[in-house]
Amino acid sequence: MNTLQLNKGRDSSLIRLHPWIFSGGVASVSGSPAPGDTLKVVDADGKALGFAAYSPSSQIRARMWTFDEAATVDAAFIRARVQRAVERRAHLLGPTRTAIRLIYAESDGLPGLIVDRYGDYLSCQFLSTGPVFWRDTIVAALAEFSPCKGIYERSDVAVRKYEGLPQQTGLLWGEEPPESIEITEQDRIFEINIRTGHKTGYYLDQFDNRSLVQQYCRDRLNGPAPVRTVLNCFSYTGGFGVAALKGGAEHVTNVDSSGPALEIAANNLAHNGFGPEQADLVQANVFDYLRELKQEGRFFDLVVLDPPKFAETKSQFLKAARAYKDIAMQAAHLINKGGTLVSFSCSGAIDPALFQKITADALLDAGREGRITHYLNQSQDHPVALPFPESLYLKGLVCVLD
Ligand code: SAH
C-alpha cells in the first residue's frame, strides 16, 4: 500500500489527533499515489498511525481520515462519516430552521469538505484532494442521508489552488437550484442564491449571533436602555439588520460597499416586512463612513461590525489587527451611553485573546469604557474539534459602553 513515513519527532501532533501532516514532516512517500489517494501513515520507526488523503502539491501534504490503524478507508467509511455528520444536526432542522451546515470539514472527520443545506438544496465545497477523490461517494451519501432536490458544487474558492485544483461550480446531483431559495431562521426569512452568494451562498455561521442581536434588542439584555437605532456595518444580506428590527429596534442603517449586496439586503428587509422608513441602505466604505457619521454627530444604540476576513494568512495579521482596531474605535465614537458594540472577526489568524486586546485598545483610544457581556463564536453547527483549534475562526464580542 502507498505509505507516508514521517520524520523523527514529527508524529507529536498526530498523537494529539491533529489531522494535518505538513510537507516538512514527511520523510518519504512510497508507492505511486495520485492526488487524493489514501496513504498509510507511519512514524519514523514504521509504527502505523492511521490513514490520510494525499495532497502532493500542497504544503499540507496529507490530511488524516482516521487515527485507527485497523480501519479501511473505502466508500463505506466515507458514507458512514457523511451519515454521522448529518445525524449530528438532524435535531436542529425544522420549520423554523431550514438552513444549516451539514458537514464542517475536520470537525466532522471529513477534512476539506463543507456542505450546507438551504431549504431543499445542498451546496458543497470540496477544498482538498481527499474529498475530490471521494466526490461521487459523498454526493450519493448526501442524497441518501439528507434527502434533497439538488446538490450544487461551489468549489470556486482560492484555497483550491494550493491543492492544484481548478475552480469548479455546477450541479452534482438532482435538479438545478432555483435563482432564489427562501430559508427560515427562527422568525427571519432570507432569499439565498446558491450560485452567486458568498461562500456556499450565505453566512450560516452567524445564525446564533443574529438571534442574540434580536434578543438583545427585544429584551434589553444590556440594561435599561432600549435599542432604538442600529448601525449594521458590512451588512451584505442585511441579516443583522433584519434581526434587530425583528427584535423591536426602530431603525437600522445598513452599510456595505457592494451595490448588489445592498440589493440583497433591501430584498430581505422587504420580505420580512420592513420598509425604507425603518432601514437605510448606504453604499460606502465603512472605514470612511464611520468617520463621516462622527463628523455629522450621529449616535446609535447598537453598532454591528461584521467585516470580511481582514487576515487571509498569518503574515497579514498586523495589518488586519490595525483594521479591526480602526473600525472598533470609530464605531465606539458613535455609540450612545449605555449602548452596545457587537464586533466580529472571522480571521483565523486573529485569536480570541488578541481580538479582545484589539477591542480594548480601540475603546481606550476612543476614550470609552466598556464591559464585555457576551463572547460569541460561530454557530453550533460549525463545532470546533478540540484537537484542531484551526476550526475556530469566528469570534465576536458584545461590549456595553458607559
Ligand atoms: N454581516 C453580513 C456578512 C458580511 S460579509 C451578513 O450577516 O450577511 C462582508 C461584507 O462586507 C460584504 O458584503 C462586502 O461587500 C462588504 N465589505 C467589504 N469591505 C468593505 C468596506 N471596506 N466597506 C463596506 N463594506 C465592505
Write the layout of secondary structure elements.
Elements: E1 3-6, H1 12-15, E2 20-22, E3 26-30, E4 38-42, E5 48-54, E6 60-66, H2 75-89, E7 99-104, E8 113-118, E9 121-126, H3 129-133, H4 135-145, E10 150-155, E11 168-174, E12 181-185, E13 188-192, H5 207-219, E14 229-233, H6 239-246, E15 251-256, H7 259-271, E16 279-283, H8 286-295, E17 300-305, H9 317-332, E18 335-345, H10 352-366, E19 370-377, E20 395-401
This protein binds S-adenosyl-L-homocysteine.
Broad structural category: alpha/beta
Structural domains: how many: 3
Radius of gyration from the CA trace? 23 Å
Let me know the largest β-sheet: 7 strands, mixed
| SS elements, strand count | 20
| CATH fold label of the largest domain | Rossmann fold
Please write the string of helix (H) and strand (E) elements: EHEEEEEHEEEHHEEEEHEHEHEHEHEHEE
Number of helices in the DSSP assignment: 10
Mean pLDDT: 96
C-alpha termini separation: 65 Å
So what's the CATH class of the largest domain?
Alpha Beta
The side-by-side strand order for the widest beta sheet comes to 16-15-14-17-18-20-19
Strand content: 25-35%
Q: For the record, what is the CATH homologous superfamily label of the largest domain?
A: Vaccinia Virus protein VP39
Low-pLDDT stretches: none
Give the ligands present.
S-adenosyl-L-homocysteine
Word description of this protein:
The protein has 402 residues and is an alpha/beta fold. The chain folds into 3 domains: 3-66, Roll (Archaeosine Trna-guanine Transglycosylase, Chain: A, domain 4), CATH 2.30.130; 75-184, Transcription Regulator spoIIAA; 203-401, Rossmann fold (3-Layer(aba) Sandwich), CATH 3.40.50. It has 10 helices and 20 strands. The protein has a 7-stranded mixed sheet with strand order 16-15-14-17-18-20-19, with helices on both faces. It starts with a strand and ends with a strand. The mean pLDDT is 96. It binds S-adenosyl-L-homocysteine. S-adenosyl-L-homocysteine (SAH) binds next to helix 6, strand 15 and helix 8. S-adenosyl-L-homocysteine binds at residues 203, 206, 234-237, 239-240, 255-258, 261, 285-287, 306-308.
